[in-house]
Amino acid sequence: MARSFPVTPVLLAVLLASAWRAAAASSMAADRIDRLPGQPAVDFPMYSGYVTVDEVAGRALFYWLQEVPPEAQPAPLVLWLNGGPGCSSVAYGASEELGAFRIRPYGATLFLNETTTANILFLDSPAGVGFSYTNTTSGDNRTGHYTSQLSQLVHRNNIGIAKPIINFKGFMVGNAVTNDHTDYASMFESWWNHGLISDATYQLLRATCLNDSLMHPSPAYNASQNAAAPEQGDIDVYSIYTPLCNQTSAWMKGSYDPCTESHSTVYYNRPDVQRARHANVTGINYTWVTCSDPLYDHWGDSPRSMLPIYKELIAAGLRIWVFSGDTDAVIPLTSTRYSIDALGLPTATSWSRGSPLVKIVGGWSQVYKGLTLVTIRGAGHEVPLHRPRQAFILFQHFLQGKAMPKNGTTS
């Protein structure tokens, strides 16, 4: 099975519009994208380029900001971070999930995706991911902390400030690593329930792996995984019921495209695309990749549980949503539910089905005191890739702080 997890965390940070634009004004003009190669006409501005985060270490992160049309401002600012660790938010969030465009086969042209009513900042983090870089191996690794930890940091720095620069409202994560013990136990259970592994392998995994770290597995865990892989077979563990990418098969318009990573790899390695996006400005001869294997292999900043941070931020009254596609076998819905159960939160609104499309159940939701769980029926690890309409509705309701539509309603 694949070893990288392009987790889909989202951090909602509503900035005071004047402060945001005043701080960015000096570089906005230089970073504005005139037009991307193969791009259809749009009525909203985009910016991309580098933000230096450590001058001494020569470290800079690459961003892509997609704003709403001017008449829709002011609008929330959302920071989108994909996980891995080591996977590009440009490759996944912007190009396969909630970005303005999708990429056609062979990186030829772009087509419009359904957009949101928020300004979205896609950030390749940490350095070494996508077009982000560092000139040294020293320095602080905090740029690699993901959504829950970043939310905690912003929240703590806002305490006692009447009008903080970051008017932080909350965060949302999807199919995310949360708590190693419950994640492991329920992942193996999900594989077994879906018929992906045998009884013997299920028992072997439970016996050898339950106390392991997801990011730093033991040799016993790796041996057990090696036993599970041939039983699972040649399937997409990120979406177990969809086909694998076959470069020889035709892509049919309107259907699910399993080759999106191949398309983005071709497109973002085009020199004209890099020039238009102010990327790789020094012209280094290297191949852009969706995920960095060296960064994943040497990652050392991974707490085994996010639950203490969740408890702190729930107590602070932040808006916290967790969503899960129910055909993901990497961080399955079972894992998410066990991790949330471990928080011991009281239920505010019981489990209910949602029907964002007429006569079609789109998923289910449950509202706890301090946290909302939403499942998306038929979606894999990247929910917007597999169920774009349901993901759009989910994102809009999160931004508005409204409960998900249920039992046939569309509000």
TrEMBL record:
<dbReference type="GO" id="GO:0005773">
    <property type="term" value="C:vacuole"/>
</dbReference>
<feature type="signal peptide">
    <location>
        <begin position="1"/>
        <end position="25"/>
    </location>
</feature>
<dbReference type="InterPro" id="IPR001563">
    <property type="entry name" value="Peptidase_S10"/>
</dbReference>
<keyword id="KW-1015">Disulfide bond</keyword>
<keyword id="KW-0732">Signal</keyword>
<dbReference type="InterPro" id="IPR033124">
    <property type="entry name" value="Ser_caboxypep_his_AS"/>
</dbReference>
<comment type="similarity">
    <text>Belongs to the peptidase S10 family.</text>
</comment>
<dbReference type="GO" id="GO:0004185">
    <property type="term" value="F:serine-type carboxypeptidase activity"/>
</dbReference>
<dbReference type="Pfam" id="PF00450">
    <property type="entry name" value="Peptidase_S10"/>
</dbReference>
<protein>
    <recommendedName>
        <fullName>Carboxypeptidase</fullName>
    </recommendedName>
</protein>
<dbReference type="GO" id="GO:0006508">
    <property type="term" value="P:proteolysis"/>
</dbReference>
<keyword id="KW-0325">Glycoprotein</keyword>
<dbReference type="InterPro" id="IPR029058">
    <property type="entry name" value="AB_hydrolase_fold"/>
</dbReference>
